[in-house]
Structure formats: structure tokens, C-alpha cells
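Morning run. Coffee first, then this:
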Amino acid sequence: VISGLLSFNLDYGLNQIFCTLHVQATLALHKFILPTDFFAHLIKDRVTVLAMMPVHIGKMFDEDPHRLPLSNQLDHVRVITSSGGNITKKMVKKVDEYFKPARFYSMHGLTEALRSTYLDPSQIHIRPTSIGKAVPEVEVYIINEAGEACHAYEVGELIHRGCCIYKGYWNSPEETAKRFKPITILEKVITIENPNEVVIATGDYVYHDEEGYLYFVDRQDDMIKTGGYRVSPKEIEDVVYDHLPSIKKCAVFGIPNEEIEEEIVLVYTARRKIPQNEFIFELKKHLATYMIPTIIEYREELPLKASHHEEVDKSTLKINFS
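And here it is:
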């Protein structure tokens, strides 16, 4: 029994339909509104495969623990998959606590190429923030601006080669050319046999460790250029979520500054407004000086994207600061 939690207007959701038909399984539809209703769905429908996004993991445990089921009531869940966002150590701990027998697959990819990487369940507690290695029939490469292969811990762009690559964007040749590239962009990395082959320049900044496991840094378009440095908004946001537990949501982005190119802005919502000096003091414990936001603003609520992702709409926030 597969949980039909995901929206069918995304490939991740559509794949639950395809998988259900392929293996002649049951797809139990459910719209996530309240954690208690969600867990009731899992128990009542005897769900064995749970495909979801990190935002769902965060929401399902946003409830009084006394109202959540016991872990043995969820023993029938055998497989959990996650894509469409970044997994945190806290999420892994919660999933492990409530879904003890389940194998947890953390995945990474983009619509244009379906899935690029996955983290084997045996590694989820060893390197919980890793996006893993290439899925079967796919090769992934990390290249720098010179088109050379990145060394361990050197940040570069993730290139996807292999199966599941789409033909391009409908009636949009300019956008297609930005993402769908000739394999010659890898000429400094591999021997090219078919120059007509197409690969995906994902726009994702990642790095790999000594064992070849990949780690997501940020989207190319989101990186902030400030004082000669490239700063990842996600890295700052992760520190906020890890070390300032009263924060409900936050968004980090850059705004133009003639002297340093961009200055860093952090907007957040929380149970209470946190004193500026207290906020900065905590950030300085974990971030380099050039990564500390120059503007920190509290708001009672943040604008969200018009989708079930419940991601903060940074473009709307940027307009407010322009």
C-alpha cells in the first residue's frame, strides 16, 4: 500500500501512480492537513510505502508528542522516500524514532532528469545530510567554472548524465539551452564517444567527500555574492534551524549593495522576537564573519510559494527590501 500524499502535478507524485500500476499495488490517497489525521491515514490504510517531502516530515511531528502514535503502531511502514528538499539530522532522528523497521531513502534530483542521486539507508545515520551517490543508470559529475572535475570538498555544479533526461522545455528553446547541454561540457573530465549526447547542467552547487558521497550546498541562482565571497543561503538557514529552535521559518537572501555587491538579509518568524545581539551572537559561533547577515528582521508570518511545498517566497520578500 503506497501513501498518495504527494501532488500529482509533480513528477514525484505521478511516479506513485506509475509504481502502483506497475506492481499492482494500492494507492491510498490523503491530503496532509493535520499530523493526527496523517498518522490515522497511515494506520487505517496499513501503508507500507511512504513517499514524501522534507516539509511533510517537519509537519508530521509538529504536534504534542502525547497525540502521536506509538512506534509499534507504525511497524507496517517498510520504506520511506524523501525528495524535493533537504533532510536534516533532526528529521532523521524523528523518523528513526517512530518508523523503526522502515528503510529511509533520501533522494535528490530535478524535474528535467527525474532523480540524480540517492543515499543508501545504511548510510542515513552515518552521513544524514548527504544526498548520496548516483542512482542506477545515471552518472553524476561535479565540475568547476573551468570545466574541470572538482576535488573532494571543492564546490562545483552537478552534471547529470544518463537515463531519464527530458527532451527540453515546451516551446522554450532559450530556457532549454540553459539547462540541456552538449556532453562536450565534460570534455575535461571524460572521454566523449558521442558528441550529440545531451546532459543536464542542474544548477545545483554540490561537493563530494573522500568516499564519493555528495552534499548539496545551494542552487546556483540563490548563491549570494558579497565582499568577494560566495555565500550559501541554505548554510545560514541550516545553522538557524539547528541552533535557534524557537525559529519556525526563516529565509536568507541577498539584496544589492554598491560597496560589497550584495548584503545578506535574514527574515524569520518565531514564537517571539529574538533580540538582535542574541541572534548575532549565536550565528557567530557557527559562521564566518562574512556570512553574518547585516539585516535581521522578525515578522509574524512569511509569504509562502503558491504550492504545497510551503517554501518561503523569497522573491516577494526581496521586493519589500528593494
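The longest helix spans residues 11-23. Good start to the day.
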